Amino acid sequence: MPANPKYLSSTKERILKITAAILGGYLLSMAIHLIIGMSLSIEQQPIMVATTAFSAFSLWAVFMVIAFIAKSGKKIWAIYGSLIVFLSLIISWLKYF
């Protein structure tokens, strides 16, 4: 028995959610880890690099789940995109000032 089409999301909506989950979640988790790494002292940064390999993957998985739970792909891209831009501004501020 096939699924009722009125309960399924459109192809465009699925593509937006999948790209937000994979690309947006990855960029967001890396931006968070870059801010943490840049705020640490030089002596603590090698430890941060080792732990980023594990914690970034876990955070990426959480952002992927959040993207698929969201009702709208456009809304989740807007949220992820604005957070990525905001965190990128913080990263550039930490780097140059």
Automatic annotation (TrEMBL):
<feature type="transmembrane region" description="Helical">
    <location>
        <begin position="47"/>
        <end position="70"/>
    </location>
</feature>
<keyword id="KW-1133">Transmembrane helix</keyword>
<feature type="transmembrane region" description="Helical">
    <location>
        <begin position="20"/>
        <end position="41"/>
    </location>
</feature>
<keyword id="KW-0472">Membrane</keyword>
<keyword id="KW-0812">Transmembrane</keyword>
<feature type="transmembrane region" description="Helical">
    <location>
        <begin position="77"/>
        <end position="96"/>
    </location>
</feature>
<protein>
    <recommendedName>
        <fullName>DUF3649 domain-containing protein</fullName>
    </recommendedName>
</protein>
